[in-house]
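Lab notebook: predicted structure, single chain.

Context: the supervisor wants predicted structures on file for every construct in the current expression panel, including those that have not yet been purified. This is the next one on the list. No modifications to the sequence; it matches the entry in the shared construct table.
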Amino acid sequence: MERKISVSDAELEILEILWSADHAMNANEIRSMLNQVRSWERTTVLTLINRLLKKGVISQEKREVYYYLPCIERDEYVKEETRNFLEKFFKGSSKNLAAALVDSEALSREDIRELRDYFNRNM
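Prediction complete. Output recorded below exactly as produced.
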């Protein structure tokens, strides 16, 4: 990603639906999927879609109605958000992040062992 993209939690929910689909979806299909966990009004869904369009995160295609596709892959977005998080809270230091996780007791001994094994396999 060349530019930082800021996506709200609500916009991210729409992106998650589009990422999980294997095809373009229209607003009604997106809303139907969202209604399994949220009951947002049609206008709310359309507002969020328009925000994502303006940010260049999704594209639209006119058929009988508009269909939407993500312009960025989920893994690319997650990597960029991880870099932003690391920079914002830990001055870019993954060591500081790991120390904060250990100090806050967010990691169990099992978590630490699994991470150690992961690093040993991938280094």
